[in-house]
Amino acid sequence: MIFLTIGYTKTTNCIVFSTNNFILKRSDLIRLRCFISLIPIIRRLYFINVRWHINLDVTNSIAIINSNIYFMKQLNAKVIFCLIIIGVSSLIFWSCKKDPWHGNDFPGFPKQSIVTVTDCNLNGWVKDQRGNSTIMFINGPAKPPLRKGSFHFVTPDLSFARFRNDQYSGTPLSTITKLSYSTFIEQRDSIVDVNFVVLLVDVNGDNSADYNLVFDPRYQSQPFVGDSLPDQGKTQVATWQNWDALHGGWFVGPDPKDDPDHGGAFFNLATFVSNFPNARIMNDVAKGGAAIRLTVGGPVFSKNFIGDADNFKIGVKGVTVIYDFEFTIANAGDDKKINGYWPKFATLIGFASGGVAPYTYSWSDGKKVWNQREIKVRPFQTTTYTLTVTDANECIGTDEVTVFVK
């Protein structure tokens, strides 16, 4: 249910419209698009400020909206006319009929979004550390595909670790339109060690996983892929590599953590769906837990391994979420250069993601502190500035930027 509150503030002589958080089912998303498309027109009719916060949850195919609309004009005939426009817009909003999720025609929302994953907010991911393994967020190595960080795996002999996501349970395999990720191997004592992906799949609708589908980068080159699958090259050390799991070769388990040899012929997900049209990703604790998991190592064959993963992409019905694994919620931006001394200055702007909003910002050069998000600095010599970000749960992240003076 949607609650619309209308208030009049005497001190500022303005009318305030405010809605509660509300949920739109996927059949209503196109209606939201229709409504938002009218906002530029309405703003010309004496809107001073229209603020929308839209969080699209592609897992459950819903949108969560919180809006505040402020009328900052005198209560006169023109403002009343605006109210009439709002009413007409609302009727259009709720009268649109098309369900965008069945045609992928939804220009009112972005086709992809980046979700930052940190220790402050795992955003649906779960650390699954086994035995003597170590898993954590780090900066690096080298230059990760997205920003500065990645998710780090360390697995000693005969151990393994997982980083799993439970949110996609129940998602039909036929609706997956993107599935890829990036890996970096820092050190390995065995060629069999690399980050692989496992999907638990239910094919008969009993909510129990019937198959472990395994995508292993070791088998994405000749002679394994043959002529029907793309040759993505062999795994390499000290190099970021991207793996197209949607179109690449999969095999039916056992899970490589228990058996280093693949379990049969290689196929892509489309081939599997053609044989099992009702196949769904499924959480099944008895058979390994999460519907989707990044895994490395195994209790049977694993040797010492150090590696990283990042840039995990999953698309459902054309809407793609890119998971960016980062060490910190703070982002101080790139280093700056000033050609000359004062009065030249550099503008530093702090950014935050991967935590729980709202955020507070502060900067420091070791001597002075600025409790604001954006600052202008005029250092006489090369100086490093530290950004500290605190989220709503008091989770703190830091990042640094250096201003070079020539």
The low-confidence runs, each spanning 5 or more residues with pLDDT under 50, are 1-75, 92-109
Q: What value does the average pLDDT take? A: 77
Largest sheet: 7 strands, mixed
User: Radius of gyration over alpha carbons?
Assistant: 25 Å
In whole angstroms, the N-to-C terminal distance is 60 Å
Q: Would you report the number of β strands?
A: 28
Give the percentage of residues in beta strands.
Answer: 35-45%
Task: Describe the model.
The chain contains four helices and 28 strands. The strands form six sheets. Strands 6, 8, 9, 11, 14, 18 and 19 form a seven-stranded mixed β-sheet that branches. Strands 7, 10, 12, 13, 15, 16 and 17 form a seven-stranded antiparallel β-sheet that branches. Strands 1, 2, 3, 4 and 5 form a five-stranded antiparallel β-sheet that branches. The protein has three domains: 99 residues, no CATH class; 214 residues, Jelly Rolls (Sandwich), CATH 2.60.120; 76 residues, Immunoglobulin-like (Sandwich), CATH 2.60.40.10.
Task: Output the keywords.
406 residues; Jelly Rolls; seven-stranded mixed sheet; seven-stranded antiparallel sheet; 4 helices; 28 strands; disordered N terminus
Compact overview of the structure:
This protein has helices at residues 29-37, 39-44, 77-95, 269-275; strands at 4-9, 14-19, 22-25, 47-57, 62-71, 112-117, 125-129, 134-139, 149-155, 160-165, 176-188, 196-202, 211-215, 241-244, 250-252, 280-281, 292-297, 305-316, 319-325, 330-331, 336-338, 346-349, 351-352, 360-364, 369-370, 374-377, 383-390, 396-405. The protein is mainly β.
